[in-house]
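The material for today's practical consists of a large collection of protein records. There is nothing in a record beyond a sequence line and a structure line. As an example, a complete record with its sequence and its structure tokens follows:
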Amino acid sequence: MSSERFAPLQKIGFFVNTSKVNAADIVAEVSEWLHRRGVTPLIADEPAAALGCPKIGMQTTDIVRAADMLLVLGGDGTLLSAAHTPGIENVPLLAINIGTLGFLTDASLTELYPTLEATLQGDYRVEHRMMLEVVVNSTFRAFALNDVVIRHYTRLIELDAYIDGQLFIPYTADGLIIATPSGSTGYSLSCAGTIVAPQLEAMLLTPIAPHSLTVRPFIAHGDAEITVKMRSAYESVDVFVDGQRETHSLGAEAVINVRKAERTIQLIRSRRHNYYRALREKLMLGENIKRKVCRS
């Protein structure tokens, strides 16, 4: 464990997936638990109304500025949504999985209170996760914790991908995923991309259903700049940032630039967190599959 010392946590903000059936009970119980330890829980007015909690006259961006830590209650999707909140890079996040897979989260719901207790005692480390910055024709800029996806849903598209100004691969495919190591267990994995240790700084280029057996996923170094151009003048594509968190429709003339962002996301990691165990258990890595022998 890191020997780094952290300031006492006095205010903890909540970022909650309010669609979960048990979310209201969890928030109420955790809020009372924090109050008993002299910690102020902060919940923005909109989720507070959905959860039946008292309003305190603060919006999500106010919570981010005021909190010493954010407690994210949900799954990976909830954490991705939190990552798109302005100023989120300035506050550490403790993510508790009350969803499904939860590769980005630190602990399960059954480990919530031991994890919180250790965190209040300063028994944790902060893991900085790389993010991507995507810029298109200088008209918009966005940040991704998991991936940037360029695709068309009804036909193959032709794309030229450049790395540091050098032509890399001309793709004919349904699309292209540019992912961080954090995103290597997401959409990229489902398209046969490689799993990459999340502490690394790298960018994964994973084609979606390429129309060639010679096209393979590739891992570029973290300081590379990826440029993607449409090869056919009639093409138009959609760009998705971290799934549906941000979407943009682009014309054929669009030039898409993706590089490592200056900002990172701070994830709190407890002693209980074991990334490799999570991979084994959630993806069943190395699981033996015994085939039944049919006898006539």
Observations:
- The chain has a mean pLDDT of 90.
- Residues 128 and 266 are 5 Å apart (CA to CA).
- The domain at 131-262 is CATH 2.60.200.30 (Tumour Suppressor Smad4).
- The chain has two domains: 11-123, 131-262.
